[in-house]
Amino acid sequence: MKKLLATLALAFIAPVMLAPVAMAQTPTTQQSKMTSCNKDAAGKKGDERKAFMKDCLSNKPAAPAAPVTQQDKMKSCNKDATGKKGDERKAFMKECLKKDK
Q1: 3 falls in which pLDDT band (50, 70, 90)?
Q2: In this structure, which long-range contacts are made by residues 89-93, counting pairs with CB atoms below 8 Å and at least 24 apart in sequence?
Q3: Are 53 and 37 in contact (CB under 8 A)?
Q4: Nearest Cα residue to 95 out of 79, 83, 82, 77
Q5: Are residues 51 and 79 in the same domain?
Q6: Residue 99 per-residue DSSP state
Q7: What is the number of domains present in the chain?
Q8: 4 domain-assigned
Q9: How far apart are the C-alpha atoms of 101 and 97, rounded to whole Å?
Q10: 19 found inside a domain
């Protein structure tokens, strides 16, 4: 019975104890940036390297493009459909709204 309790306790405690070790192995964004900047700074020394690293690490990544909303698509397609009427307009709008812009 004691062996069973010890085994169960170990089974519940081991994942909790090992979780920080697993998370520590995955580099953070800042660590990845540091690695990249270090590679780019090869050959630089002293104040030149210090200035380069400061600039490199402070650069913010480009913001991802905002996804096109359905409302934006509708505005764009309506503008492009100017002059079309009836079934022609309907077919054009259907195709236009399907496309990824």
Answers
A1: confident
A2: none
A3: yes
A4: 77
A5: no
A6: S
A7: 2
A8: no
A9: 9
A10: no
Query: CA-CA distance, 75 to 93, in Å (whole number)?
Result: 11
- Which ranges of the chain does DSSP label H, i.e. alpha helix? 2-24, 29-40, 46-58, 70-80, 86-98
Domain holding 49, by residue range, is 30-59
What number of other Cβ atoms are within 10 A of residue 5's Cβ? 9
Please name which of 71, 100, 33, 74 lies closest in space to residue 41, comparing C-alpha atoms.
33
In terms of domains, do 46 and 72 share one?
no
Higher pLDDT, 13 or 84: 84
Residue position matching structure tokens 């070790």: 21
Residue 66 has pLDDT above 80, yes or no: no
Q: For tokens 């405690």, name the residue.
A: 13
CB 81 within 8 A of CB 92: yes
